[in-house]
Amino acid sequence: MDYGNMISDAFEYTREALVGKWVRWVLLTIVSIIPIVNFIFFGYVMEIYRGTKPAPELENWGTLFVDGLKLFIVMLIYAIPVLVILAIFGGISFLSMIASGNANADPTLIAGAIASLMGGILLALIVGLIIAIIAVIGTIRFTRTGSFGEAFNFSAILETIGSIGWVDYIISLVILFVVLAVVQFVLGLLMVIPVLGWIISFFITAAMVIFEARYMTLLYDSA
């Protein structure tokens, strides 16, 4: 697999989608940061998942909103195991802290509460990582087929990953993670600058999501 070509393709795709098309960039940035309205942005991402090239126009907002809402539901369902784990361990930790307060702050109970919370977070991270590996393909399958069932057709999802090659697939995701981590680090530095830094960060974040969507689309199509 040509990882470098995937990176350059996704970068060029994002550049052509936004640079020089300032109205589109501004609108995408605005709709991406407003709750509920950002379903339109999710719908736009779905258009990228469908393999649309060059980048789609920001039009038919009603259709994009409905598509984005569907994508949000799929992502929410995938997130349920992580949310349940956090709720259970968070609840255990909370009850332990209450018990420690009633027992004159027993160090053992406090330590148990902290250990429970940390254990829950660690377990949630592990489960979340496993789910993310599956969800990447699942969300694109949903986008291509329009079927909620296909978003969770795990045998087909695993077959697709197998066609890509598990090693190539994991390496591709790691490369994407590193690229996004570097961008996030830069965004963190920009956020230190009041107002202007935040505005720039919002614009870069919108571009980063488009880059990520195109990269994952290329990964999916390599199967």
UniProtKB/TrEMBL annotation:
Q: Which UniProt keywords apply?
A: Membrane, Transmembrane, Transmembrane helix
Please indicate which superkingdom the organism of origin belongs to: Archaea
Matching InterPro entries: DUF4013
Please verify whether the record's keywords include Transmembrane. Answer: yes
TM spans, by residue?
22-45, 71-98, 110-140, 161-183, 189-211
Q: Does the keyword Transmembrane helix apply?
A: yes
Record-given protein name: DUF4013 domain-containing protein
Question: What broad taxonomic lineage does this protein's source fall under?
Answer: Archaea, Methanobacteriati, Methanobacteriota, Stenosarchaea group, Methanomicrobia
